Amino acid sequence: MPRYFFDITSEHAVQDEDGEELASSESARDVAIRIAAEVLPVHSRQLVQTGRVAVSVRDERGVIVHELECRLTSRSPAAR
Question: Per-residue b/e over 9-21, b at no fewer than 16 CB within 10 Å?
């Protein structure tokens, strides 16, 4: 089974060194969505400060196969 690695980027990058064996890239995408749902509340301060929190999925070769990105964009009332 292929191994996938889940990296978190917000104020600082956290690189997954262990990874997880999963049946497919689609399974890895589903895990990335669950990870994002878990880390977003923990990284909410970084989201406000940096405007971005992301979970990247790398395959065994180090190629990013999925990236889930949350961005915070503020718009002024005059821009509406």
Answer: bbeeeeebeebee
**Beta carbons of 25 and 65 less than 8 angstroms apart:** yes
First to last CA, the chain: 50
Give tens-digit pLDDT for 14-37: 899 999 999 999 999 999 999 999
Is 20 in contact with 58 (CB distance < 8 Å)? Answer: no
Taking the C-alpha atoms of residue 80 and residue 75, their distance in angstroms, rounded to an integer, is 8
Residue owning tokens 């940096």: 50
Q: Which two tokens stand for residue 3?
A: 């191994």
pTM, entire model = 0.82
Name the average pLDDT for the chain.
88
Statement: residue 78 has pLDDT above 70: no
